[in-house]
Amino acid sequence: MAKAEIRMMDTIDIEEVMDVEKRCFSTPWTRDAFWQELTKNQFAYYFVAVHKHKVIGYCGLWVVVENANITNIAVDPEFRQQGVGENLLQSAMEMSRTLGAERLSLEVRVSNHPAQAMYKKYGFEPGGIRKRYYTDNQEDALVMWVKL
After folding, report:
1. Can you name the residues that pair with 6 across neighbouring β-strands?
2. Got the DSSP string for the chain?
3. Catalytic residue among 45, 119, 133, 134
4. CATH number assigned to the domain comprising residue 48
5. How many whole angstroms separate alpha carbon 94 and alpha carbon 37?
6. CB 144 within 8 A of CB 125
7. Which residues contact 24 (CB under 8 A, 6 or more apart)?
8. Domain count, the chain
9. Cα–Cα distance between 58 and 13 in angstroms, integer?
10. Per-residue confidence (pLDDT) for residue 3, from 0 to 100
11. Is there a catalytic annotation at residue 107?
12. What is the DSSP pairing of strand 103-109 with strand 67-75?
């Protein structure tokens, strides 16, 4: 089991986050997208999971008044099923509560049953479908919500 420290992401983490991003997604975000999120978006909060001085996962969160949304969550495939994703999710939930959010939502691929199971473990419930949400293969997204 990988012991990972969860901390706030900084711009110096972008290169390592990009490595995780490329290993996890067929259409990864750009460096500029992460830079904008960290330096320009007043609603954005990003966390990284660090194991042996290396970023092995990250989670993005937007909090706007009483609504929070997880923008993305990714764990290096080598470190999955070891609690890293859960630790990142817990950090996002704690930050959402701290900032006064009443609800937290996210989108997950309809085919991603392991992630859906993790979200359900933390009280998330299905709330709807976003048709053809993912641009790489036009897969639908399941919207999930939890009341904080």
Report:
1. 49
2. ----EEEE--GGGHHHHHHHHHHH-SSPPPHHHHHHHHHT-TTEEEEEEEETTEEEEEEEEEEETTEEEEEEEEE-GGGTTSSHHHHHHHHHHHHHHHTT-SEEEEEEETT-HHHHHHHHHTT-EEEEEETT--TTT---EEEEEEE-
3. 119
4. 3.40.630.30
5. 20
6. yes
7. 74, 75, 76, 77
8. 1
9. 10
10. 85
11. yes
12. parallel
What is the rounded CA–CA span in Å between residue 48 and residue 74? 10
User: What confidence category does residue 135 fall into, taking pLDDT thresholds of 50, 70 and 90?
Assistant: confident
User: Among the options 107, 122, 125, 139, which is catalytic?
Assistant: 107
Question: Which among 60, 48, 51 has a CA at the least distance from the CA of 15?
Answer: 48
What is the span of the domain harbouring residue 62? 5-147
Distance (Å, whole) CA 77 – CA 146: 26
Amino acid at the residue 58: Y
| Residue 119 annotated to the active site | yes
Share of the chain above pLDDT 90, in %: 94
Nearest to 141 by CA among 90, 92, 71, 91: 71
